[in-house]
Prior knowledge:
Blueprint: E1 7-12, E2 16-23, E3 26-29, E4 39-40, E5 42-46, E6 52-54, H1 55-63, E7 68-72, E8 86-89, E9 92-95, H2 96-115, E10 121-126, H3 135-151, E11 156-161, H4 162-171, E12 178-185, E13 190-197, H5 208-211, E14 212-218, H6 222-234, E15 243-245, E16 251-253, H7 257-262, H8 277-287, H9 292-302, H10 306-319, E17 325-329, E18 338-342, H11 343-368, E19 377-381, H12 388-397, E20 402-405, H13 411-424
Parallel strand pairs: 1-10, 10-11, 12-19, 19-20
Antiparallel strand pairs: 1-2, 2-3, 2-4, 5-6, 5-7, 8-9, 12-13, 13-14, 15-16, 17-18
Helix pairs in contact: 2-3, 4-13, 6-10, 6-11, 8-9, 11-12
This protein binds adenosine-5'-triphosphate and magnesium ion.
Magnesium ion binds next to loops.
Amino acid sequence: MTTRTDICGLDFGTSNSEIGIVRDGEPVLVDVEEGRKKIPTTIFFDNDSRHDLFGEAAIERFLEGHSGRMMWAIKSVLGTAIQGGATMIRGKRVSFEQIITRILGNLKQKGDAAAGVELRSVVLGRPVHFNDDDPRLDRDAESILRRAAAQAGFEEIEVELEPVAAGIEFETGLEREQLGLVVDIGGGTSDFSVIRLTPPSGHASAGRRDRVLSVAGIHIGGTDFDRLLSVDRFMPELGLGSSYLDHQGQTLEMPQWVFHDLASWLRINFIYENRMIDGIYTIVDRNKLENRRLARLGRVLGGHYGHTLARTIEAAKIELSDRQVVEVPLDLVEPRLALSITRRELESAIAAHLEQIERVLIQAVDDSGVAAPDIAVVFFTGGGSLLPDVRQRVGRLMPQAEQIDTDQFGGIARGLTIEAQRLFG
Ligand SMILES: Nc1ncnc2c1ncn2[C@@H]1O[C@H](COP(=O)(O)OP(=O)(O)OP(=O)(O)O)[C@@H](O)[C@H]1O
Ligand SMILES: [Mg+2]
């Protein structure tokens, strides 16, 4: 094994990020925030202190009501048509690439401190697809990620697919060869890989190409589930689908964009950059006395409560993995307002998306060339894999396979670090 200590594996996730280094020849995850091995992929550009905060610290500062710019799920811009663009921060245009650079820079700094040396070489994870349909946008997304890593100070940069990295991590504990399916449901993407899992001692004889039999992925993940649940169950309470009277007394349907943006982690901020927002404020002002729902919308927009609500919805979704019904307090929106959401409602809101995910899983198995019953184990990783509906669907498709849970949040970074040892050692 390598003796280099200036190498690392970095999992830049839509929701959470992790970094692993090598200590005494072993991959270890770094404490990235107050003793925790994962940090929310967030950044808050604080107007008052002019400091940038990351992770939970950023969220806390933002929720305290400080003025500034909060960015959530920035990885979601990668693969989209706006990925080369910028957003306004403290009156200046800052490119998305620069924002990603700042986030990677923070992770590197934590890694440097833990390693006691400046980390020079990194294996970055990437989803199977940044964009499901457009190869050019997909390639550009990886280039942006690589450039951001270089600007953050890494000199040598390699990239590995996230589900393959998860497989590499799973292999370390194996004593004999097994056919396995990796199921990684993250915040932004769902990725799969069928791997001939081989104990590390067998790696010399079986190259990567012999081991990774197939990969497949789709740009759907936990942040989409939050959005869909919000649009189905919550946005109607703010006026989605309701009508209003315009200044000539005509009844019109509420514009939908503002609700869809409010329900989307990435787009909440963009509402305030949208020229059409003044029109929404006008509608709200004219109608808030008669239409209680629009009064709520006015409160949410005026108070910049979009992220707080998205967090509430996400928390409800997560709780529904453990119980059948949750009560969601919404006092912020209106005193004593609360919403009760059932697991069945969540499942129906996301059913079409889970079906798409299921089709991609089936495709991964088909492409691997092995018969589904020969796959002995399914390894789950990524926070979204904790959804009971995901387990049941996989269980129905592959009843013979053993379902194994590993570290939901750190497995990929550890796999990337093992890959760094192999590549840079
Ligand atoms: N118990 C749970 N049930 C359902 N979803 C959960 C649970 N715990 C976490 N999640 C969801 O998992 C997602 C985050 O998972 P993870 O940290 O693996 O994603 P990521 O690696 O940041 O994203 P990606 O790999 O797609 O870029 C979030 O959408 C979160 O709400
Ligand atoms: Mg992930």
